[in-house]
Design goal:
The protein has twelve helices and ten strands. It has 324 residues and is α/β, with parallel strands linked by helices. The relative contact order is 0.18. The N terminus is likely disordered.
Length: 324
């Protein structure tokens, strides 16, 4: 203790004493780095928005972390299978999950059993926020949300509405209030829904813009509304659901990274810092912009708060619109 007091009183000062006695800010800020390849599990099929963003961020994280970051698709049960895989993974930073707000609806799905991964997983950071779109096959009458819904009400055969995850299923239940004969068809991911939509086997769908970009450009599907709080810059002529008279369909989707429960805080903070750095990369920014998205990169605490808000909001909504 005498030596420590002498050091502090001398020209070395407090910062030097902290360094010598193991409490250095420099040491506390030393980033964690992976020692082997990192896997990001996508709990949905390839080809959708979650998969696309996972690959965008994996490329940047590989560079930042100086280690391979691979994407593994593990679809099934509305994202529950892949989410549980990471909830049960070793908490060493080498196994991560990318998920969307539907994670917070798992416990409300029919037949749900076991532990809810949303209550176990550790939020790291939001990669980006994207807006969904409501699209229809060109053969469906109408070009606006109201026109399409009106056509479905009077159609001789019920219209079908495709969904790919739990939040979309919740949106489908909301639409069913206005279109009582609507048939909701659930898919494991956009990669499976898209072919049926292109073939008009399912008439319309709630999807991530990412999954249908080429088909929109080719005229194989039409966008009748976006569901964010503002118009997409890449679809500036398409009104939002709120503008179309359906404010109950407004929804914004965060895409965030999670770690297994019990992951040490230095690992969480280092990964969050890596995500923040990734969002500064030109290629990543261009990729997110092409999807009409907003860059992420928030703190673990901020992301945790977002997850809590989604859990509370969805718990209230499913009481009004049960997921079937």
């Amino acid at each position: 203790m005498n030596t420590k007091r002498q050091l502090i009183r001398s020209g070395l000062g407090m910062a030097g004493a902290m360094f010598l006695f193991g409490s250095s800010p420099l040491r506390a800020q030393t980033p964690w780095r992976p020692t082997r390849p990192v896997t990001i599990v996508v709990p949905y099929s390839p080809g959708g928005g979650v998969d696309t963003l996972a690959r965008l961020v994996a490329k940047e994280l590989s560079r930042i972390l100086s280690q391979s970051v691979v994407v593994e698709n593990n679809p099934g049960a509305d994202g529950l299978i892949g989410s549980r895989k990471i909830a049960e993974a070793k908490p060493d930073g080498h196994s991560l999950l990318i998920q969307i707000p539907s994670l917070t609806l798992n416990a409300h799905l029919p037949g749900f059993k076991g532990i809810d991964p949303a209550t176990q997983l550790m939020p790291i950071s939001v990669v980006a926020t994207l807006y969904g779109v409501i699209v229809a096959h060109p053969a469906v009458a109408g070009n606006t949300l109201a026109e399409v819904f009106s056509a479905c009400k009077s159609a001789p055969q019920p219209c079908s509405f495709g969904t790919t995850e739990a939040v979309a299923r919740l949106q489908g239940q909301k639409i069913a209030q206005d279109v009582p004969n609507l048939v909701i068809v659930n898919y494991k991911g956009g990669g499976q829904l898209t072919p049926d939509l292109l073939g008009n086997n399912v008439n319309m769908a709630f999807m991530g813009y990412t999954a249908v970009i080429p088909h929109i450009k080719a005229g194989r599907v039409k966008v009748v509304a976006t569901v964010g709080s503002r118009r997409l810059p890449v679809l500036s002529d398409i009104p939002t659901a709120r503008e179309s008279g359906y404010p109950q369909l407004e929804s914004e989707t965060w895409y965030g990274l999670f770690a297994p429960p019990g992951t040490a805080q230095p690992i969480i903070e280092s990964l969050a810092a890596a995500v923040r750095e990734a969002t500064k990369a030109e290629d990543f920014q261009k990729g997110v912009a092409s999807l009409g998205g907003i860059l992420g990169g928030n703190s673990p605490t901020e992301f945790t708060d977002m997850v809590k808000v989604a859990m509370e909001r969805h718990a209230a909504l499913v009481k009004q619109f049960p997921i079937r």
